[in-house]
What we know:
Blueprint: H1 2-13, H2 35-40, E1 44-57, E2 71-84, E3 90-94, E4 113-123, E5 126-133, E6 140-143, E7 151-154, E8 165-167, H3 181-187
Antiparallel strand pairs: 1-2, 1-4, 2-3, 4-5, 4-6, 6-7, 7-8
Amino acid sequence: MGLLAGMAGCAAASESLRIPDIQDRGFRAYEYSSLDELAQRASAIAVVEPTGRTHEVPLPEGYGLPDSAPIVFDIVRVVSVVSGELSGDTIEVATPGIDENTGFSALETGGPYAVFLTPAMYGAQDPIGGYAIVGGPAGFFAATQKNTRTRFQRVDTQSPDLPKILDHTDRAALPTITKTEAELLAEGP
């Protein structure tokens, strides 16, 4: 209890952070209502911090329209892997949307963030490279205090059945990742 109480005291004294505001402008192919559902489509749950760098990947021929915007990936530093596996200390993650507070990609600034990650792909066995957040904003949780990397708030306002708070020190409340990147790529999006 001493360690947790000490961490809570530090969090209370630390500076509050603004939660990204991602506005959906379309429909979702799937609605997530539990952390277990997010974990079924993820190869890792990780805590990441933005580097402020992005990378654009143009759509290959046959995908989208000729003037389609490229896919924007945010380059993030992996602070910790809570469950599953990731390769690398720095990874590229497809942006989950624009933060209406900043006008930037939600993963480009702020943080730290807890994210449910899956390989980014066009289709089954057709990887883009890098990762995507499961369910876009559904698998995206933001720290509410500057000096914490364990307690995160749900960013998604369209998934009210998901828990409002994700505390990765509460291992009993967190699902275990059971699929590898290869298995998820074989299943497809």
